[in-house]
Fold tRNA-specific 2-thiouridylase MnmA.
Amino acid sequence: MSGGVDSSVAALLLKQQGYRVEGLFMKNWDEADGTEHCTIMEDLADAQAVAGRIGIPLYTASFSGEYWDRVFEHFLAEYSAGRTPNPDILCNKEIKFRAFLDHAVTLGADYIATGHYARRRVIGDGSQAQLLRGLDGNKDQSYFLHAVAGERLARTLFPLGDMDKAEVRRIAEDAGLVTHDKKDSTGICFIGERRFSDFLKTYLPAQPGNIETPDGDVIGRHQGLMYHTIGQRQGLGIGGLSGYSTEPWYVADKDLDRNVLVAVQGGQHPLLYRQGLYTWHIDWVTGAPELPLRCVAKNRYRQPDQSCTLEAAGDGYRVLFDEPQRAVTPGQSVVFYQGEVCLGGGVIERTFMDEAGSPGESIPMQGQSA
């Protein structure tokens, strides 16, 4: 129980369905780190109030050590390499559905349950489960759960998977839960209300460099490649340049070797689009399908389904989209679906602009530059 409305209603529904429910509040960040920006104590108080209202016990467990080792160090390494990671995906894989699940099992639990908007379907002998999209398309969170293995999903319940957010809030209000109108959490707990750039400066040294056009003209300065992501418009600090139009500038690429940010004008500039991508590893929920595979994919959360072909490529995988994709970002995840079933996904290693490059082309392995 996180202290939010979703986990509150998940616990309430399970109690009403006859389960013996016990709440567990996870501490994944050391609130005594001196930053005073994490809302963990407020969230714990809300979780305690909800547990008291429902009539279930609430325990706390700290996974801050595991979070630092398995999630945060990777987060910093990716940003220092100029990439844009998604720590929520790794947190689900390594903390909520590994450290938390293992802890719950040692306490005698048959299942864990979360407030995610996703569903699962038990298959075979019951030891595995497929991951299904949540029925509320606006809240479906299967994208963030794609790296959770099927045997762990088989021991998980998603009480909100068939519901939409409005219904969840209504149930919470009718039950008198203090979280019924609590604002949804956004961003990452350990960043809180701070500016993202200010947070990164605490852990990573800034490395200023030039902002250039694709032709090599210097048009500005950046304070560090880690502060920018592909397709970004805000925060570049350039505009009103003589010899250029008044169209806004967008981040099109990062030249890591030269520490240069490449920017283009216009949100539909051709250099903002990629025909495909490579990923070196895919977490399959219930095993790898036969390749090549026609399916749909998302290369960012809430993106509409994009038709593509997935095939083996040297030491990894190649994804060729039917239509060019805007702002495909290394470090983010590409997630594959067939119908309502989420097959799995992987971290985007690098991208390509056209169909050049054979399916057998080797791709950089983890830790190598593209």
Q: What stands out?
A: Residues 357-370 have pLDDT under 50 and may be disordered.
